[in-house]
Amino acid sequence: MWTGLLFALGAGLMWGLVFVAPLLMADYPPALLVAGRYLAFGVIALPLALIDRRSLQGLARADWLEACKLSAIGNFLYYLCLAAAIQRAGAALPTVIIGTLPVVIAISSNLRDHRRDGRLPWLQLSPALALIAGGIACVNHAELQRLAVGLEAGPEALQRYAQGAALAVVAVACWTWYPIRNADWLRAHQERSPRVWATAQGLVTLPMALLCFALLGLLPRDLGLLPAGFELPLGPRPLAYLGLMAAIGLFSSWIGTLCWNEASQRLPTSLVGQLIVFETLAALAYAFVLAGRWPSAWTLSGIALLIAGVILALRIKPQPSAA
Question: pTM for the complete prediction?
Fold first, then answer.
């Protein structure tokens, strides 16, 4: 249990980096950020695949198809929506919406996977979910007030906020589906290494990323996928782009996925879903460092509630479901 908790914490620390990347590269379109991140992920996975080639050869065609589905939805579509949401609405609104993932995943998996993992009793689970939800509300109180002020800027600002909100909701749907399906495979293949499964998902992202680069170069500019005058393939700041994409490809994609797989193989899906709060906490911490300001009292109170909710959830033992 505690080993799984530490792996989930590591995944959250790694994944929190992806929230600041669109802010650091605000002049780059979301599609190019997605292609660059997962091209780096695929390149990093190549030497790892050589080390684990025997284990990878043992994966069936159905396993590779599942890895493609997980990467397409949980990696490409999720990060495309998240990056676009952050660039349209700023970091606060997507964090508010993505922060609901622990509650959404916990409820979904407790309804769906209770026969396999055991049911976490709703009466015992509800206080933990309430603490997590209250913590998310407190953490984002100041940011929500700032958003309300931003909406007064005019109809164009309102439209961008609405687009950002819609894209963040799609990102939530993607990442509600991903951990549940990923846990299905890992729990059904206990003999498989989570590291090998992370590498397999990295390998399938490589052709997807190359295809994304090709489409960006071939599709007409009037579609609006690229800013006017944007130079492919590396844009106006090639060294910064390459360095940041390599960093999040290694830390956020491969190491983050590895840590999450290790946690998913050790913990019930309804519980591990709540541990995505670590991603929210890490993203907020990185955002405060980037902004150069200290968190408010509301934020500190929210962090305390989030941690209390996670600790309370970890103390709940799943009850076997009747056949």
Answer: 0.80
